[in-house]
Amino acid sequence: MGFKMGIVGLPNVGKSTLFNALTKTAAAQAANFPFCTIEPNVGEVAVPDDRLDKLAAIASSKSIIPTRMTFVDIAGLVKGASKGEGLGNQFLANIREVDAIAHVLRCFEDGDVTHVEGRVDPVADAETIETELMLADIESIEKRLQNIVRKVRGGDKEAVQQERLMRLALAALEEGKPARLVEVDADDLRAWNMLQLLTTKPVLYVCNVGEAEAAEGNAHSAAVAEMAAAQGNAHVIISAQIEEEISQLEADEAVMFLDEMGLSEAGLDRLIRAGYALLHLETYFTVGPKEARAWTIASGTSAPKAAGVIHGDFEKGFIRAETIAYDDFVTLGGEGPAKEAGKMRAEGKGYIVKDGDVLHFLFNT
User: ∠216-217-218 over CA atoms, to 5°?
Assistant: First the structure.
């Protein structure tokens, strides 16, 4: 299980430049005019994890297979998108397909790059997109409420539940609050998710700053940080320019370049970690002489469900999981020593997989 993050933003904020850097491709045309990204570009990147390299070294694994993360570069949005302005309808359709939103905000000054609103104000930019998403959700809910009136009158339980949840969302949206702030009971969660409201998507603000400000940020990114904290959202500071330069370098050169810029790691690493936290994701490992591999799961996943990420048959025929904690595997020097030290556990169907677990599944075919 990976996850899909949509990169959104107003035109000319640097999102396509960031996408190019993240995927190390030039698939998304970065140009100084609105709507240069007309179709959503999709790219997959490996999720960097030092733990995987250490496990592979200990097990002498022939190949290393990291888990992957999908980025979708979505066409730029302008005011009125909820009414079809610009490429609004396409933007809204594409954003429904992603798990989370990486909202790129322009936090740099550059007279050569035109801002669609003629000013640099990332907080206002964030409010523009949030407003358009809320307006689109309101319109969607109002239409759906009209369509289920007959079923509700007939006492259809599913329709009654949908109506109740939609009215909860509508009340919040009309107060200027995104639907993700609505508290939903566990019993309603499945039906709530099926509403596919745009403003239920988790948001990560990406502050795109100039090269000289990549380490500490600036007044614009500080304003975004304050806004994000007030909303309960996360933010990261990245220079898309730097990321694009790094993407063209060899690994050793990239490390030297980052050091010269006063950065301890690439922005991609920060972005992925923030994304993992945003969606409550974790990683477990399978390790052997053939390969060392990372797998992504949601926090709270049971052992059978985690096995199903590898193959559905693993989940159906699950017997047990042989489990070694990452620290024990590394400290003791591998599966054999960990087993001798009593650090390998046999876990059943009720076991909740922990981040970093090294697992071996036994199952019936």
Answer: 125
Contact, 105 vs 7, CB < 8 A?
Answer: no
Contact between 101 and 201 under an 8 Å Cβ cutoff? The reply is yes
Q: Are 122 and 224 in contact (CB under 8 A)?
A: yes
SS3 of residue 342 by DSSP:
coil
Sequence-distant (6+) residues with CB within 8 A of 205 are 103, 105, 126, 224, 227, 228, 233, 234, 235, 236
Distance, C-alpha 16 to centroid of its chain: 17
CB 13 within 8 A of CB 30: no
Residues 159-185: pLDDT tens digits?
999 999 999 999 999 999 999 999 999
Question: In angstroms, rounded to a whole number, what is the distance separating the alpha carbons of residues 267 and 317?
Answer: 41
The backbone region for 336, taken as left when phi is positive above 0, alpha when psi lies in -120 to 50, beta otherwise, is alpha
DSSP-assigned letters across all residues of 254-313: HHHHHHHTT-SS-HHHHHHHHHHHHTTEEEEEEE-SSEEEEEEEETT-BHHHHHHHH-HH
pTM: 0.81
Give how far Cα 295 sits from Cα of 27, 219, 285, Å: 27, 38, 6
Cβ atoms of residues 103 and 9 within 8 Å: yes
Give the three-state DSSP class for 137: helix
pLDDT in tens, 64-88: 998 888 888 887 665 554 455 444 4
**Please, what is the Cα angle at 132 between 184 and 202, to 5 degrees?**
40
